Structures are given as structure tokens and as C-alpha cells.
Q: What sequence folds into this?
């Protein structure tokens, strides 16, 4: 999925977000333990994160409320987000 294709989607996988983008978590696809694990990191539906680093085969580095978190690619695939403007 390219950025232009992605922009037409309502939400997309966090894995597809570009570095420097600010995104809002729209849904989390996973079991209770996965939800609990993300919640423990402060990543819930509605949370906004900035993509600091996103390389094809490595973990994602995201910033959330002054904290930087690494997420594995499999985790990122289960988190669906929308791009938000910095001014929102």
C-alpha cells in the first residue's frame, strides 16, 4: 500500500505509517493479553503517537507523551491508525 492509497483508507496498519507522521490509534486487533500489554505502555484506542523510526524489517520506534517505545512489526500490524495533523 502506497501513501496515496493509504490516505484514502479510513484506518491502516501502524506498520504503514511514515516517519515523522502523527497518528491516532483507531483500533487494536488482538486478544486480551495484547490489549493489556499495549495498555500498560499507554497505547489505547484514541492515543496519539509520533512515528520516530519505521524501517521495513525492523521494529518501529514511536513517541507517546514524552516516552519512546519500540514495537515489533507483528504488534504494529495489529494496531490500526489514522494520520492526524499536528494542529488537531
A:
Amino acid at each position: 500500500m502506497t501513501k496515496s492509497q493509504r490516505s484514502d483508507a479510513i484506518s491502516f496498519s501502524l506498520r504503514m505509517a511514515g516517519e515523522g507522521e502523527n497518528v491516532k490509534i483507531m483500533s487494536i486487533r488482538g486478544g486480551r493479553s495484547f490489549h493489556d500489554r499495549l495498555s500498560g505502555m499507554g497505547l489505547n484506542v484514541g492515543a496519539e503517537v509520533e512515528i520516530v523510526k519505521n524501517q521495513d524489517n525492523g521494529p518501529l520506534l514511536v513517541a507517546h507523551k514524552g516516552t519512546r517505545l519500540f514495537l515489533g512489526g507483528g504488534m504494529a500490524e495489529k494496531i490500526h491508525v489514522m494520520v492526524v495533523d499536528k494542529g488537531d
